[in-house]
TrEMBL record:
Family: Belongs to the short-chain dehydrogenases/reductases (SDR) family.
NADP listed as a keyword: yes
Organism: Patella caerulea (Rayed Mediterranean limpet)
InterPro entries (UniProt xref): NAD(P)-bd_dom_sf, Sc_DH/Rdtase_CS, SDR_fam, VLCFA-Steroid_DH
One cellular component term from this protein's GO annotations in UniProt: endoplasmic reticulum
Swiss-Prot/TrEMBL keywords: Membrane, NADP, Oxidoreductase, Transmembrane, Transmembrane helix
Segments crossing the lipid bilayer: 20-41, 168-187, 193-214
Protein's recorded name: Uncharacterized protein
GO molecular function: oxidoreductase activity
Pfam families: adh_short (PF00106)
Signal peptide: none
Domain of life, per lineage: Eukaryota
Length: 321
C-alpha cells in the first residue's frame, strides 16, 4: 500500500486509481522485460565470453552420456572429453560406440567405457548399473530420445502401441532410471550435474506431436522439481529445451542461425550450466521458445504441424511405391 501511496502523491492529487494501476503495471512489465533481456545477454553472450559456466570436471572425473553416437549426444560426449573428463558412452549400436570411443580416447587423451543397450527395452538397467560400478560420476547427460518420423494424429500412428511403449521407455524411463542410479553417490559427495535434454516441444502443447511433446514436459517437470529437492545438496539439475538442431532426428542437414549444428548448439548449451537451470541452450531457440509459449497462436503451430504431416505422408507414400 505504501508503494501505491507514494505513486499517488508523486502523480498529484488528480491521479485516479486507474492511472496508478496503469503506471504500476507498465513499470512491472518494463522491469520484467529488462530482467529478461539481462538474463538473455548474460546466459547466451557473457557466460561463454567470460567463462562463467560451471567447471564440470570438479564434480567428478567421469561423465555419462546416453544416445551419444550421433547428433547432440555425440557433441556432449566430445565436448566433455575436451574438458578432460572421462566418458561412459551409452547408446544402441556397438560398432558406432567402439569407433567413437577410439576417436575420443586418441583425440582427447581421456578414458572411455562403452555400454551398448537399446533404451526401448525396460530390462537394461542392471547391465548399465554394473558398467558404472566404481566410477566417480560427476556429470550425467540424459540425451537419448526418439520422436515420430513426421507429425501425425495420435489415432493414426503406425504401430501405435509399440510407439507408445518405445517412446515412454526411451524419453522418460531412461532419464528417470539413470538419474536414480547416479544421484545417491552425487549427494553423498555433495557434487554433481544432471543435464536432461528435453525440447521446445515441452513449452507448448504440440498437437500431432502429442506423445513426444508430453514426454518432454515430463522431463521438464521432473528436472525442475528434482532441482528444488537437491539444490541444497550441491547438485545442479539442468533441463535443456532445444529447438531444431541439424541432426538425424530432425532430418535437417543445412544449418542456419535458427538451426545450429550439434557442435555449435552444445558449445552454447554447456556454457549455460551453473547459470540457468532451465535453458533453451542457444540464443535463437530462446527467442523461438518465447514466441511459442507466449505469442504464436496455437492455430499457427497446428498449421505448421499439418504442413509437416502432409510432406511426411507424401514422402512415405513415395517410398512405398
Ligand atoms: N535434433 C533436434 O532438432 C532436437 C530438437 C529438440 C530436442 N531434441 C532432443 O535431443 C536429443 C538428441 O536428439 P538428436 O537429434 O541428437 O538425435 P540423433 O541425432 O537421432 O541421435 C540419437 C542418438 O541416440 C541413439 N539412440 C536412439 N534410439 C536409441 C535407443 N532406442 N537406444 C539406444 N540409443 C538410441 C542413437 O544411436 P544409433 O546411432 O545407434 O541410432 C544416436 O546415438 C533427443 O532427446 C531429442 O528429443 C532434438
Amino acid at each position: 500500500m505504501a508503494v501505491f501511496q507514494n505513486i499517488i502523491s508523486s502523480l498529484g492529487k488528480s491521479a485516479d486509481f486507474f492511472t496508478v494501476f496503469g503506471v504500476t503495471a507498465a513499470s512491472f512489465v518494463a522491469f520484467k522485460a529488462a530482467l529478461g533481456v539481462f538474463r538473455f545477454i548474460s546466459t547466451y553472450v557473457l557466460a561463454g565470453l567470460l567463462g562463467l559456466s560451471a567447471d564440470l570436471k570438479k564434480a567428478g572425473s567421469w561423465a555419462v552420456v546416453t544416445g551419444c553416437t550421433d547428433g547432440i549426444g555425440k557433441a556432449y560426449a566430445e565436448q566433455l572429453a575436451e574438458r578432460g573428463i572421462n566418458v561412459v558412452l551409452i547408446s544402441r549400436t556397438a560398432s558406432k560406440l567402439d569407433d567413437l570411443a577410439k576417436e575420443i580416447e586418441s583425440k582427447y587423451k581421456v578414458q572411455t567405457r562403452v555400454v551398448a543397450v537399446d533404451f526401448t527395452r525396460a530390462d537394461i538397467y542392471s547391465t548399465i548399473s554394473r558398467s558404472l560400478e566404481g566410477l566417480e560420476i560427476g556429470t550425467l547427460v540424459n540425451n537419448v530420445g526418439m520422436s515420430f518420423p513426421f507429425p501425425e494424429y495420435f489415432i493414426e500412428l503406425e504401430n501405435r502401441e509399440q510407439v507408445i511403449r518405445d517412446m515412454i521407455n526411451v524419453n522418460m524411463l531412461s532419464m528417470t532410471m539413470l538419474t536414480s542410479m547416479v544421484l545417491p553417490a552425487m549427494v553423498e559427495r555433495r557434487r554433481g550435474y544432471i543435464i536432461n535434454i528435453a525440447s521446445t516441444a515441452a513449452t507448448a502443447p504440440l498437437a500431432l506431436l502429442g506423445l513426444y511433446s508430453a514426454s518432454k514436459v515430463y522431463m521438464d517437470y521432473f528436472s525442475q522439481t528434482l532441482q528444488q529437492e537437491v539444490s541444497n545438496k550441491g547438485i545442479t539439475v539442468q533441463v535443456v529445451l532445444p529447438g531444431f538442431v541439424a541432426t538425424k532426428l530432425s532430418k535437417i542437414k543445412k544449418t542456419s542461425f535458427m538451426i545450429p549444428s550439434p557442435t555449435t548448439y552444445v558449445r552454447s548449451a554447456l556454457a549455460t550450466v551453473g547459470i540457468e537451470n532451465r535453458t533453451f541452450g542457444f540464443w535463437s531457440h530462446a527467442v523461438q521458445g518465447f514466441l511459442m509459449a507466449s505469442i504464436l497462436p496455437s492455430m499457427v503451430q497446428r498449421n505448421v504441424m499439418l504442413g509437416a504431416r502432409k510432406a511426411g505422408l507424401r514422402k512415405r507414400n513415395q517410398k512405398k511405391e
